[in-house]
């Protein structure tokens, strides 16, 4: 994550700070909230040479980090280690999203030596809830061992205060709401970034967790409680309205997401490539195999995306905090598209997660 000042400076100087890469759709879990609907039956694999080309083009645009987000579980990617080593060799930070099921002590050591940062997973401290959300029995035990191996490798011992290299991703929903405070304390006490996300109505969640979405009041209650905890015990203070708890998400200003097909999006749930209104002759044109990354970045569509903060509607448009929060654009887009809005309109709609008074 990059802060508000860095995000706006990057956007204003036409510079990317990060790209997010899908490497494979295969996964050893079947999470019920997966935006990509990955699983063991998904077999798409990105060409390693294409990934290297994308990274090279992104470096020319100024990136500082590459987020290897998989689409599925990236540690299953056949060229996973070569990819991490390649990113590191270019002086760029590799950032890995993983469910940690395959995180051995040796692999954790490899990642540590290659300057990687790692975002693991822990949706629940109760095995039965974690296994249900992950879609596989025994997932809790495997995830726990993987996280322990990352901690052993030194990922929870930052070189400087605030320079965290380990995070835990936690998708808040009605099944785990009562555990949020405990997981938050665990993260803070162990120098782990708490990546508290909110269940988004896209992908598999639309079919399997529709009744587990949180209400605005539930989101408000837990965020304000976590803010109280941070102020009281950890000397952190933050804006409670941002989509990722204790951390704003301004990805649309400085990042691009490239999926397994080479289609470029602003972020994972902002699935512009799936909407027929943006296709030309039946194809989504903003694809790394049809256009250069520079051409995509400079296009009218992605210029609109980067400047979305200037056209936001509703509470988001009238908010005094737009310098550090533009709401969750992925959530706004998903809700808008589900309700029949066109893509450009959906992108600028107010974020329904926000509990700030009008």
Query: Compute the gyration radius: what is it?
Result: 19 Å
Low-pLDDT stretches: none
Binned strand content: 5-15%
Distance between the termini: 28 Å
Summarize model confidence as the mean pLDDT.
94
How are the strands ordered across the major sheet? 6-5-4-3-2-1-7-8
| Helix-residue proportion | 25-40%
Series of secondary-structure elements, N-terminal to C-terminal: HEHEHEHEHHEHEHHHEEHHHHH
Annotation, overall tally of beta strands: 8
Q: What global shape is seen? A: globular
SS class: alpha/beta
Helical element count? 15
The biggest sheet, with number of strands, parallel, antiparallel or mixed sense and barrel status, is: 8 strands, mixed
Q: Key features?
A:
eight-stranded mixed beta sheet; 15 helices; globular; 12% strand; alpha/beta; 358 residues
Description:
This protein is an alpha/beta fold and 358 residues long. The protein is built from 15 helices and 8 strands. The chain has helices at residues 4-12, 48-60, 80-89, 105-113, 127-134, 139-152, 180-189, 205-208, 216-234, 251-254, 293-298, 300-306, 314-317, 329-338, 343-347; strands at residues 18-24, 65-71, 93-97, 117-121, 166-172, 193-198, 255-258, 264-265. An 8-stranded mixed beta sheet has the order 6-5-4-3-2-1-7-8. Helix 2 links the parallel strand 1 (18-24) and strand 2. The longest helix has 19 residues, at 216-234. It is globular and about 50 Å long. The chain starts with a helix and ends in an 11-residue tail after the last helix.
